[in-house]
Design a protein that fits this description.
By secondary structure, this protein is an alpha/beta fold. It is about 40% helix and about 15% strand. The protein contains twelve helices and eight strands. It has a six-stranded parallel beta sheet with strand order 3-2-1-4-5-6, with helices on both faces. It has a two-stranded parallel ribbon with strand order 7-8. The N and C termini lie far apart (about 45 Å).
């Protein structure tokens, strides 16, 4: 959709940053989309504060894990995260989610309302469809749903999506006014194309936290460029966590970040 599967790309100078000397290209590839998106959604659009209660959909994904770290760095005490397996529940709990929810076994909206009947401040929604209205109902006054994707509309027969599309198209502006809540859209490609200065601000803000040691990259899988189909399949089947990187012009290792860390620890020992 965004022309991301390419060996070369052209970008405005103000929209890029130099790769730190001690970083690999795989580490660098994990920053712009995941961390810049999470930063922009939380701080530039979501107006995140230390006291904010946050709900992150797809918390085990690349943007989700970046958002967990940013919320933790900001001092947020309540971070709710949804995911779809016990293994991912354990992962996001270890990363800093205070209230993990398995959306396959629980109604996430009912669970959030049960835990926080007063409402949530910031919700990052990459799902779209009928979850937008569900999320709006979870907000407390002043809260915001930040929509930056529509995963619900991907890969399903068109006729099964009609209700979800209609749900997205019928958000009531009067309800937003009366409840003092908001839904905001974020398209980082549009930001990068039209506001490279803003993208650079996002990246510089993120890199400042990396330099402080508040953030770490998470590349869950590196694959050779020739295996782009396998990488796409794994993402569509939700088999990955964190960032998937395609490597061009050099050998790539099929290992998770945890496996790489274990190997490094063994070598150090």
């Amino acid at each position: 959709m965004f022309g991301g599967y390419a060996e070369y790309a052209i970008a405005p100078l103000e929209g890029v940053l130099p790769l730190p000397d001690d970083w690999t290209f795989e580490m660098g590839a994990s920053i712009p989309v995941q961390f810049a998106t999470a930063w922009h959604c939380l701080f530039e659009t979501g107006a995140l504060r230390k006291s904010s209660r946050v709900l992150l959909h797809a918390a085990a994904g690349g943007v989700g894990q970046a958002a967990i770290q940013l919320c933790r760095s900001a001092g947020c005490e309540v971070v709710i995260g949804t995911c779809g397996s016990p293994q991912k529940m354990e992962l996001i709990g270890e990363k800093g989610v205070t209230h993990p929810i398995n959306y396959r076994t629980e109604d996430y909206a009912a669970r959030v309302q049960e835990m926080f009947p007063e409402g949530i401040d910031v919700i990052l929604n990459s799902l779209g469809g009928d979850t937008i209205k569900k999320d709006l109902a979870l907000l407390r006054p002043g809260g915001r749903v930040v929509a930056f994707g529509a995963a619900q509309l991907s890969g399903a027969p068109w006729y099964s999506l009609i209700g979800k599309v209609i749900s997205m198209l019928t958000v009531n502006a009067i309800d937003l006014l009366m409840t003092s809540s908001a839904i905001c859209g974020v398209n980082m490609k549009r930001i990068g194309d039209s506001r490279p200065d803003l993208l650079k601000h996002d990246l510089e803000s993120v890199m400042a936290l990396f330099n402080k040691g508040d953030l770490t990259t998470h590349v869950s899988l590196s694959l050779p460029w020739e295996e782009v189909g396998e990488a796409q399949r794994k993402m569509e089947q939700r088999e990955t966590t964190g960032k998937v990187v395609l490597v061009i012009g050099e050998a790539a290792h099929k290992e998770t970040a945890s496996e790489a860390e274990e190997g490094a620890a063994e070598e150090a020992g």
